[in-house]
Amino acid sequence: MRCPTTRACFVSIRSFSSSNLLPALAGHEPNDLLNEVRLLSSRGQLHQALSLFYNSSPQLHSLQTYATLFHECARHGYLQQGLRLHHFMLAHFPSCTSDLFVTNHLINMYSKCGYLQYAHQLFDAMPKRNVVSWTALVSGYAQCGRGVESFRLFSNMLAEGDCRPNDFAFTSVLSSCDYLCGKQLHALVLKVGLGASVYVTNSLITMYSKSYKVEEAWTLFKSLSYWSQVSWNSMIAGFQIAKLGMHAIGVFVKMHHEGIGFNRATLLSVFSSLCGSHGIDINLGLKFCFQVYCLSVKTGFISEVEVATAFMKAYSELGGDVSEFYHLFLETSCQDIIFWTSMITALAEPDPAKAFFLYRQLLREGLTPDLYTFSIVLKACAGFVTEQHALAIHSQVIKSGFEDETVLRNALIHAYARCGSIALSKKVFEETGCRDLVSWNSMLKAYGLHGKAKEALQLFPQMDLKPDTATFVALLSACSHSGMVEEGLRIFDSMFKNHGIIPQLDHYACMVDILGRAGRIVEAEELIRRMPMEPDSVVWSALLGSCRKHGETQLAKTAVSKLKQMEPENSLGYVQMSNIYSSGGRFNEAGTIRKEMDGSGVRKEPGLSWIEVGNQVHEFASGGRHHPQREAICTKLQGLIGQLKEIGYVPEISLALHDIEEEHKQEQLFHHSEKMALVFAVMNEGKLHGGGNVIRIMKNIRICVDCHNFMKLASGFLQKEIIVRDSNRFHHFKDNICSCNDYW
To answer: What is the C-alpha to C-alpha distance for residues 601 and 595, in angstroms, rounded to an integer?
Structure first.
């Protein structure tokens, strides 16, 4: 699909006035034009350089000038300008097509811009190739995440024997290959004598780190005779990927003591290593985080939005007081749009309400939101119960002239979907003129989240871009939510066979979930055994959920054991195992699990639900504790429960605590947070958005079987659509039926 901006950019090139430059070139040599083009390009004025070129005499056009312009198009990612220049060259200088130097630049440009099919066609048509030709294409496939093709092409270069790969060829192919291919390349590196190359060794460290082989990366790092800044950065990033934050911090401290300067990449890895890593003491982490912040202020890197955002995120996740957080922000001398955006970014996911408050404050301060600010605020909007905030930001995006920006359209697709409005997501997607890969993936993910797997599978063949790993996570998740087992298996098998994409942990987790939910637990277990990498907590959680659904006790014990090792503070394993025992009537074992959980100091995440009434969000805990209208809500709920019992509602008490009376078990279930939220919505029907025909509830954990049955019957009895967003997906309840078809 051609972007609507393409024609505009051509017009801008043609309309640029170069009258002040052309007289100076009259009667001069091709080198004069070349030098002027180089000067403009070095200033970032590529459009002006192209305009000057098109308006000059063809006699001044040299191979070097074409090569320079193709190089600049590649550097800036200007595919459309590069295409036009290529067509112009074919029309006015056809002999260029046989020139090795120019063709290499063309291959590089198309590769860098992701136009790999055409780059490969040019490559295949070359009568003679050199190492630059091969490396440009190898690098192009690697940068597009197509590691299999990159490795295959690199192998073909070796097989032909005419070209010996240089260090750039090795670093390119290593950047996208898996562990097994990487080990082979490592052996070849040693064989051809490039083991001492700092660039190649740094790429090997990164490859081992991405493959979760951080011990091998560390061994390689220690073997270096000289550590460059990139070497240190690669090792810090490696420990960060492996969630070994203390190791990453240790390497950074040593780097600083050695007097090695750090850069933006160093700081991003260091701050990221403080988030979600194992074994970091909170107080020590906060202290270190602040020290690195001071260094980034001193060196000026804190003025870059990515660095400021990484700091804010780390500080927030380590438990830094938000008020202190805000004071830090106010004390900063440069409170520009970058810093405001950084603050909003840090709060967008953990506290959308505060993020939105800061956005409004930003407007009061007279600052103008930029494209990045809008994209982050829309990310915060995705955390609200209804789409009202997203609609408000959407209108501001249009007023600001950013309506056609693909990045913001993608953010809107995501925000509307997360707020429960798949119709608005679809509308934005269909109106997007220039869709990129994120656009397609966002829409596929939206369909999956709402249980619309058929729509996702119908959309997939319409993609006019090559899918990536995220595309297949979205498709497999959609199949998982809808019980489409055979379709999921077919898609999983097609990843490598048809698209050259090697399945990663997320894809295996989806497949374990697909097979397990369908009762094919033996196949799910076998798939885990055949995985080429170590299963992570997501894979074991998927298997455990399947064991819970189908009462598979023995395999559940294995999954729980693995989860305890990987995430000792996570309550999921304990809770699921206790539920499995309770469902099977083995209450003593369930009690033992709960005691073990208490003894380990692990706490279950409390069930919370939120509903928006008027312009205020109301939070409900189980039992309605702390809500000022608790008594009225409970009275109304008791009445609704009685009415639903008359039409078939039977409380599902099998998972309630076994050592209390059945009457109390029912009372425990009746006061679950989503039921309280539903009744409060009915009590305030006139204040709901949309006139009260649709009730939207957000929940932080998975909806239980009893509440799911309750919502189905309530939707028919109340004659309303009830949309519940739990931790996994959306449930649309209408006329006694749920969109998940009881498959969740």
So the answer is: 10
Calculated CA dihedral for residues 545, 547, 548, 553, nearest 10 degrees: -140
In 10 A of CB 388, how many CB atoms? 14
Paired tokens of 725 = 């967003």
Q: 589-596, long-range: CB within 8 Å, 24+ apart, which pairs?
A: 590/658, 591/658, 591/659
Backbone angles phi, psi at 366, to 5 degrees: 85, 10
Alpha helices per DSSP H over 500-569: 505-517, 521-530, 537-550, 553-566
What confidence score (pLDDT) does residue 7 get?
33
Question: Which secondary-structure segment (H or E) carries 384?
Answer: none
Whether 560 and 576 have beta carbons less than 8 Å apart is answered as: yes
Whether 231 and 202 have beta carbons less than 8 Å apart is answered as yes
Residues 6+ apart with CB under 8 A from 696: 385, 386, 419, 420, 611, 612, 723, 725
b (16+ CB within 10 A) / e for 256-283: beeebebeebbbbbbbbbbbebeebeee
Tokens of 102: 């120019």
Continuous segment of H or E residues that includes residue 302: none
Contact between residue 468 and residue 499 where contact means Cβ atoms under 8 Å apart: no
User: With contact defined as beta carbons under 8 Å apart, do 238 and 205 qualify?
Assistant: yes
If you write DSSP's letter for every residue of 652-698 in order, what string do you get? --TTS-TTS-HHHHHHHHHT-HHHHHHHHHHHTGGGSGGGGSEEEEE
Q: What is the pLDDT of residues 85-107, one digit of tens each?
A: 999 999 888 887 788 999 999 99
Question: pTM for the complete prediction?
Answer: 0.67
